[in-house]
Amino acid sequence: MLELLKLLQDGRFHSGEALGAHLGISRSAVWKQLQGLEAELGIGVFKVPGRGYRLSSPMVLLDAERLSRETALLQWPIFVETSVDSTNAEIFRRLDAGVKAPFVLLAERQMAGRGRRGRAWVSPFAENLYCSLVLRVDGGMSQVEALSLTVGLAVAKTLQDSGLGDVGLKWPNDVLCAGHKISGILLELAGDPADVCHVVIGIGINVNMMIDATIAIDQPWTSVRQCIGRMVDRNELAVRLLLQLRECLSRHWQGGFASLRDEWEALHAWRGRNVALTAGNNATLGTVVGVDERGAIRLSVEGVEHAFSGGELSLRLQHDS
């Protein structure tokens, strides 16, 4: 089906005969694959007698060769899969199979995409960016302190470079556009947290997905396409993202999050807002002051400043909590 999709991605009409000749299959086999595109991948196909078949809207598939060529200086091998349960989970399987870090994995679709705290990440085929990068970390957990904030800054810069305005950061790992979520980050560790380990950096960016009543997301969201009013080449966005990640991560390894804090704060979307910080069933109400050099959120609670950090914390505006 993927080869058929590559032929159709230009959004033009193609006859069943021409498609079959190119693929070396019968017209009936072409028809079965077209049905598979709709049933398995949720891709709309228009069928017009006398003209043939075309996609309901054009798409640009991820191109591993192009991505590798345009990010060659990074020396991060890049793998592209049609469908995985989640890119982070696939990274862990490859590490277990002996694939050496660093490397990057992208997928056209996730069947069980994951966000923080066990939330699902909606991952339709060929519409968004589902990307994971794995890095070897020597020296223990201190190396990854506030790393999700550094990654969030790299994503925000990527979106700004792509023409988006009003990009903001929400502690600890969300990127917003005009106050709506456009990207999320999930960091997971494997190995000895006191010595040598691997950190898997999972990034989801809503790219070409449009508001649809059938898409069930439990918070206000947007996409790059909705923000700038046109379709986006996900390959181009992925290249920008990987280059920004390398730049921000290099600075993080050299100077810690402290070297990036001012830039993060300049995009801090909720500074000065009244929030509820929850951990399990407990909630702390306060006003956001900022983040400290270790990436902890600083809240003014009844006039006294406190710093909070931890993977299970959740931050919400008070009227949302």
Topology overview:
Blueprint: H1 2-8, H2 16-23, H3 27-41, E1 45-48, E2 52-55, H4 64-70, E3 78-84, H5 87-96, E4 103-110, E5 129-138, H6 147-161, E6 167-170, E7 174-177, E8 180-191, E9 196-205, H7 224-228, H8 234-255, H9 261-266, E10 274-279, E11 282-291, E12 297-301, E13 304-308, E14 314-317
Parallel strand pairs: 3-4
Antiparallel strand pairs: 1-2, 4-5, 5-9, 6-7, 7-8, 8-9, 10-11, 10-14, 11-12, 12-13
Characterise the protein shown here:
The structure is a single chain. With 321 residues, the protein is an alpha+beta fold. It folds into three domains: 2-55, Winged helix-like DNA-binding domain superfamily/Winged helix DNA-binding domain (Arc Repressor Mutant, subunit A); 64-266, BirA Bifunctional Protein, domain 2; 274-317, SH3 type barrels (Roll), CATH 2.30.30.100. Helices cover 30% and strands 29% of the residues. It contains nine helices and 14 strands. The chain has helices at residues 2-8, 16-23, 27-41, 64-70, 87-96, 147-161, 224-228, 234-255, 261-266; strands at 45-48, 52-55, 78-84, 103-110, 129-138, 167-170, 174-177, 180-191, 196-205, 274-279, 282-291, 297-301, 304-308, 314-317. The strands form three sheets. Strands 3-4-5-9-8-7-6 form a seven-stranded mixed beta sheet, with helices on both faces. A hairpin with a 2-residue loop joins strand 10 (274-279) and strand 11 (282-291). Helix 2 (16-23) crosses helix 3 (27-41) and helix 6 runs antiparallel to helix 8 (234-255). The longest helix has 22 residues, at 234-255. The chain is globular and about 75 Å long. The N and C termini lie far apart (45 Å).
